[in-house]
Amino acid sequence: MFRTFSIIILGSVFVGIGINLFFVPHHFLDGGMIGIGLIAHYWFGFKPGLTIILLSVPLYMLAFFVDRKLFYNSIHGLWLSSLMIDFFYQWKNILTLSPLMSAFLGGTFVGIGIGLMLKGNSATGGSDLLAQLIGKSFQMNVGKLIFAFDSIVLMVGWPIIGTESFLYSLFAVSTVGFFTTILTHHNHDNGFSFR
User: Fold this and answer.
1) Phi, psi of 80 (to 5 degrees)
2) What confidence tens digit (pLDDT) does each residue in 91-108 have?
3) Of 14, 152, 163, 170, which is the most buried if we count CB atoms within 10 A?
4) What whole-number distance in Å separates Cα of residue 17 and Cα of residue 37?
5) Mind giving me the DSSP string for the chain?
6) Rounded Cα gap, residues 21 and 87, in angstroms
7) pLDDT surpasses 90 at 12
8) Global pTM?
9) Residue 55, Cβ neighbours under 10 Å: how many?
10) Beta-carbon neighbour count of residue 79 at 10 Å?
11) What's CA 12's distance to the chain center, in Å?
């Protein structure tokens, strides 16, 4: 229990750092609920973490009825990651890196953070939770599902952030997907599988 909670906290810190130190300064997007939270922040000035919590409520209600253990583990992840996203916002201008480096490092931090949280059977928001529910039901890789959801959010956010930030966001989300997939792979017969 302590180990799982520690993993969720560490993953949340990685996500908060990745979003605020690398994505926000360049108006990059992530996908899923984090991306929707960032769209709400860039367009309306809303706090992304709070937006993530509010938009995730319906999916958490579904998880409560479908998979109680996942619900209880994930609710911690939702609150902690949203708190860390809003907490680390104050340091958004602490680093000055090129857009390419920010996209790579931000994607790495967020991907590792989400991967750690998924390893702890938790999630950062509704889309991660939905990916976990679908992945468990249909034996699909959660990282690949999250990557698909992320792509949809990016397409929606493209007109808001512009083409240049969109292209860097594609690279960032690819990096997120890569690290999330690596951390959530299945090991079959001592082999490596992205199933």
Assistant:
1) -65, -45
2) 999 999 999 999 999 999
3) 14
4) 15
5) -HHHHHHHHHHHHHHHHIIIIIIGGGT---SHHHHHHHHHHHHH---HHHHHHHHHHHHHHHHHHH-HHHHHHHHHHHHHHHHHHHHGGGGTTS----HHHHHHHHHHHHHHHHHHHHHTT--SSHHHHHHHHHHHHHT--HHHHHHHHHHHHHHHHHHHH-HHHHHHHHHHHHHHHHHHHHHT-EEETTEEE--
6) 12
7) yes
8) 0.85
9) 16
10) 15
11) 9
Which tokens hold the place of 177?
Answer: 């997907």
Burial code of 146-180, b = ≥16 C-beta within 10 A, e = fewer? bbebbbebbeebbeebeeebbebbbbbbbbbbbbb
Q: Please, what is the average pLDDT of the chain?
A: 88
Domain edges within the chain: 2-186
Query: Scanning the structure block, which residue is given the tokens 């990016």?
Result: 154
Predicted pLDDT of residue 161? 98
